[in-house]
Amino acid sequence: MAFDGTWKIDRNENYDKFMEKMGVNVVKRKLAAHDNLKLTITQEGNKFTVKESSTFRSIDIVFELGVTFNYSLADGTELSGTWSLEGNKLVGKFKRVDNGCDLNAVREIIGGEMVQTYVYEGVEAKRIFKKE
């Protein structure tokens, strides 16, 4: 699968505005903009394992396509939702546990980079990763 491998954050687009809309305070937003996030993704059939390491934490996230699971963002925001494969895109549809608002995410490979796009309450942000 094209997502397999280790991906290191390279740059962000509109990430601060996205985090602000999510309710992340200014200090955490400034820190998150320089979190040195690294994702190691492996896929076995419909099962994905994502090893996430950053300045803030290191966790393993295991999910199966189409199966609802719970996930906690680095700032503590709790989400519940699913990832699915739509063509060559991983599409995440999540709801915040605290307020029921939708948070959608798409991971896709564009020009050798993994582009992760988030949309929350009308605000879109991108995090772009390069393969290590």
UniProtKB/TrEMBL annotation:
One of its GO terms (molecular function) is fatty acid binding. Residues 5-22 form the Cytosolic fatty-acid binding proteins domain. InterPro entries: Calycin, FABP2, Fatty_acid-bd, ILBP, Lipocln_cytosolic_FA-bd_dom. It is found in: Cytoplasm. Its main location: cytoplasm. It holds the Pfam family Lipocalin. Gene3D superfamilies: 2.40.128.20. SUPFAM superfamilies: Lipocalins. Keywords: Acetylation, Cytoplasm, Lipid-binding, Transport. One of its GO terms (cellular component) is cytoplasm. FABPs are thought to play a role in the intracellular transport of long-chain fatty acids and their acyl-CoA esters. FABP2 is probably involved in triglyceride-rich lipoprotein synthesis. Binds saturated long-chain fatty acids with a high affinity, but binds with a lower affinity to unsaturated long-chain fatty acids. FABP2 may also help maintain energy homeostasis by functioning as a lipid sensor. Belongs to the calycin superfamily. Fatty-acid binding protein (FABP) family. This is Fatty acid-binding protein, intestinal.
